[in-house]
Write the structure tokens for this entry.
Amino acid sequence: MADRAGARLPGQRGFGESLLWLAAVCVTLLFFFPFYWAMSQGLRNPIDTFTVSGLGVPWLSFEPTIDNWVTQLSSPESRRALANSTVVSVSAAVLALALGTPAAYALARFRFRRIPNKDITIWFLSQRVLPPVATVIPFYLVMRALGLLDTQLALILVNATFVLPFAVVILRQTFLDLPLELEEAVLVDGGTYRTAFARVALPLAAPSIAATALISFAFSWNEFLFAITLSSRDSLTIPVHIAGSVDTRGVQFWFMAVRALIAMVPPVLIALLAQRYIVRGLTLGAVKG
Amino acid sequence: MRWTSRARFLFLAPAVVWVLAFTVFPLGYSLYIAFLKIENKTEITRERVPMFDKEGNPVMLANGKQRMRTIIHKETKSTTTFEGLKNFRRIFKDPQVGTSVRITLTFILSSVSIELVLGFLLAVLFNRHLAGRAAMRAIMILPIFATPLAAGYLFFTILYEEGGPLGFLGFPFLSNPDWALASVIFVDVWQWTPFCFLVFLAALQSVPDELYEAAVVDGAGGWQLIRMVLLPALQNTIVIVLLLRLAEALKLFDIPFALTGGGPGIATQSYSFLAFRTGIRFFDLGYASALCYGLLITVMIIIMLTFRRLRESYG
């Protein structure tokens, strides 16, 4: 997002502007507070959980310790959950893009006669807004019948399915924004549609495809409903791992904070990496950020 | 959109087949299940078999008889009976459904409206030269991608009534039914206001300078400028954000699961939560599928009502 938009509203100079700046900073800090609080909690000794008053600034209010982090990161359950989440999210993103990119290209470049392209696009879009709980029961029964309960494969299939419509809709917009001439030149030179797609369009769309992959990864990483339904032990992902440890050991605030941060860090980092594409991605291409 | 080669089907087919297999088929299957009553019964049978030692010789008792042991067979049989529309009729009689619909509607109306208004005001606030704006904008992105389930647990520690950082306010954030729902809304507002803010900010920045200048020349002040220039210019964006938020808010599940466990009682049990509990926890699969179809039909109606708008924005 460029800073091209200058002082848009005719505010007062000087004092008024400073007040507005202060308001903006305060709002930002408020939205950041939960992350800060998690860090503060995670660095505390269990006995300091409720005794520390105020904002709980490490070193000022209490002596910080990294014990909670060490315990959490070295536990085999946490590691397995991290590994599962990584495998599932990466595979789902790759699978969704492998299926979705050609489909997006087809919708951007070809004309479908019987069903107009627009309607096919909306068909994909409507799956994105589909309430996931509607398919959780049939998925559970099918996976049980196939003996795939509690496997990574089941979660990969599910997450790829959820991310696919997103990839199709967003990448179609990307391809529409590319100049047509280069690809037509390939066709005129006797190249096939596949060459035009793979040699010309794909490289040009690469940044957008990468951003789509990152956002898809984050979506799968955060998915919880299907993960808790389809996995019981071996294929637990991070969100299910967090939910599980609460049930068995009661509320351990210090661990909870660390676990929440471990869960949040990858998708949040990804969001920062793909910053330029976030607005476009989350509005499925309707608003260009 | 001009090529018409048959190659188009090769490009599109894999994704379409995938969706048919993993979305359309499950939905159809779900409709079928909604007409059934599925009962799982575990039958336990005991069988007496002779015992053998390591060498394979039968173990004898003192009275000369062979020693026996018992094997317990557990077999889970699921029986399905066709029930017609019974599951669907049950929806209207179930008091939990009424409660969860009320909760979900309250949640959607309050959280989505707060998020849109707050997001718009923040976008207006940030739409000017601010030192460090890029950094502030980056921080505002963070909540959107924070794992919702983890956010729920995190806010559990923040809203904890005895010793949480907001505990000094003395409100029963999680133990009072109305407050618990307000808390769920609060977490959702924290997570999704930044989304509305970012989208509105992007849209504000694409409003041409001339529009502002013309309005300012005409003597429009701050509030008039918002009402006469910005709101009309953002009309399409606002509708899109509203639709996306509505669709997303209907799915409410993770936050109450983590923050309140649907409680106290069923005070924060959203519709999705109820369907999940009915199906996956209590294994009343037929009824749960019928519940899901209720939600599905609602979403389909929303899509049909907004179809033309969607077609304009996305087609």
Remarks:
- Chain B touches chain A through 111 residues (CB under 8 Å).
- The first strand of chain B starts at residue 36 and ends at 50.
- Residues 46-75 of chain B form one domain.
- Chain B has two domains: 46-75, 87-314.
